[in-house]
């Protein structure tokens, strides 16, 4: 099977998320790293691209040069990943979709709800894919949780509780550190800091697993470090469109927590619990029975879990492999389109522009509710209010 051609914007040398994308895209042999505009400094981007093995003429200095260069080629890239800082996502994603490329955009997809709606409309008018990298939904046991809920193992889902609470911005003396300061500055970060950065992962994870979208929310937002304008901690109450109640905590001052993403699902017939830092174990409590530990890679899991598991049971699979599962979904979607066939339903789980838009509506709902002392607000994008 011929490899698909993959390009990347952002993710330059020393960036946080660039290496995980390169590992994820290359891991299963679906994609060949073919083009890139990797850095905001053109020379540094070109140089790093060449060191990573890009051909001289496809190690671009900036994304506009890359768009112009790739657009005219017969062997143009099949997919471009946008892994630049948040405020640039909309412009770059829009330009590549309009030119007919499939895009995987980092979260948050846009900075406003209006921009999010524009991207959703563009995916429809162009027929191109815009995926959003809620990469933690690529974990095999997250996919299995979703399958268990969908096939009714837990009965009606009463409550979902999601957390993304880390402790990496807990030092008040760090407030002037340039790597931290912009995150809490409305001019650069927008209307929300911690929820927009991490909380949207937890909210998307909850929606993904229970197969419902959030309707309404009430948010208590605080700046525990008082010099911060935007929130570094938020507690949300949620109501989903299928009737499930949601609780979500996100924080950046939770000292002692490392990554801090976890989810619990409680149904009428059973409960599930999973944490990103122990991704190979899923705790399942069927009503009236003993607690069970489901291991990634064990026999008789769902097709969705089997498809996203590579190494034998007992060996660790981690975050870049979860990202690789998003890339594997996208490879299947792109190949199915090229071949004119239906895609494998077990692969049809990658997060979409619609999910990126819903997150953006949630970000603005959190800001609105937080300012109104936790008043309940509509969390849906206008486009999806019927
Ligand atoms: P970073 O600041 O560590 O790296 C950003 C990279 O983009 C740098 O190499 C920089 O030179 C490059 N860059 C900046 N502007 C550019 C431009 N106009 N053209 C080309 N390259 C440009 O940022 P980090 O932490 O890697 O985050 C990047 C994005 O990924 C953010 O949107 C962030 O929210 C997201 N992210 C997502 C995660 C996930 O789990 N899905 C985890 C961490 C970050």
TrEMBL record:
GO terms for molecular function: nucleotide binding. SUPFAM superfamilies: Glyceraldehyde-3-phosphate dehydrogenase-like, C-terminal domain (SSF55347), NAD(P)-binding Rossmann-fold domains (SSF51735). Residues 4-134 form the Gfo/Idh/MocA-like oxidoreductase N-terminal domain. Residues 142-273 form the GFO/IDH/MocA-like oxidoreductase domain. Signal peptide: none annotated. PANTHER family: CONSERVED EXPRESSED OXIDOREDUCTASE (EUROFUNG), OXIDOREDUCTASE. This is Gfo/Idh/MocA family oxidoreductase. It comes from Marivita cryptomonadis.
């Amino acid at each position: 099977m011929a490899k698909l051609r993959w390009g990347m914007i952002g993710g330059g040398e020393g960036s946080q998320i660039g290496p995980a994308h390169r590992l994820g895209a290359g891991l299963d042999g679906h994609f060949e790293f073919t083009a890139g505009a990797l850095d905001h400094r053109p020379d540094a981007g070109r140089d790093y691209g060449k060191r990573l093995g890009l051909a001289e003429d496809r190690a671009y200095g900036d994304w506009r040069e890359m768009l112009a260069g790739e657009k005219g080629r017969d062997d143009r890239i099949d997919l471009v990943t946008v892994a630049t800082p948040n405020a640039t996502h909309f412009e770059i994603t829009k330009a590549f979709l309009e030119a007919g490329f499939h895009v995987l955009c980092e979260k948050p997809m846009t900075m406003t709800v209006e921009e999010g709606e524009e991207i959703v409309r563009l995916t429809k008018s162009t027929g191109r894919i815009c995926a959003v990298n809620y990469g933690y939904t690529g974990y095999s046991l997250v996919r299995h949780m979703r399958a268990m809920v969908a096939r009714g193992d837990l009965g009606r889902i009463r409550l979902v509780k999601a957390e993304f609470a880390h402790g990496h911005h807990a030092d008040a003396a760090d407030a002037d550190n340039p790597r931290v300061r912009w995150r809490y500055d409305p001019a650069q970060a927008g209307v929300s800091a911690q929820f927009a950065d991490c909380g949207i992962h937890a909210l998307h994870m909850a929606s993904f697993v229970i197969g419902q979208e959030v309707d309404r929310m009430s948010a208590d937002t605080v700046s525990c470090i008082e010099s911060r304008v935007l929130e570094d901690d938020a507690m949300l109450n949620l109501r989903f469109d299928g009737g499930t109640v949601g609780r979500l905590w996100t924080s950046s001052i939770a000292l002692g927590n490392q990554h801090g993403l976890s989810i619990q699902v409680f149904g009428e017939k059973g409960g599930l619990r999973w944490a990103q830092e122990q991704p190979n174990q899923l705790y399942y409590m069927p009503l009236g029975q003993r607690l069970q530990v489901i291991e990634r890679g064990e026999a008789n899991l769902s097709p969705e879990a089997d498809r996203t598991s590579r190494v034998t049971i007992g060996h660790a699979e981690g975050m870049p492999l979860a990202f690789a599962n998003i890339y594997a979904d996208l490879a299947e979607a792109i190949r199915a389109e090229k071949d004119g066939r239906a895609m494998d339903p077990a692969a049809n789980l990658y997060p979409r522009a619609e999910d990126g838009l819903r997150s953006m509506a949630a970000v603005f709902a959190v800001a609105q509710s937080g300012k109104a002392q936790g008043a309940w607000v509509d969390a849906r994008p206008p486009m999806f209010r019927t």
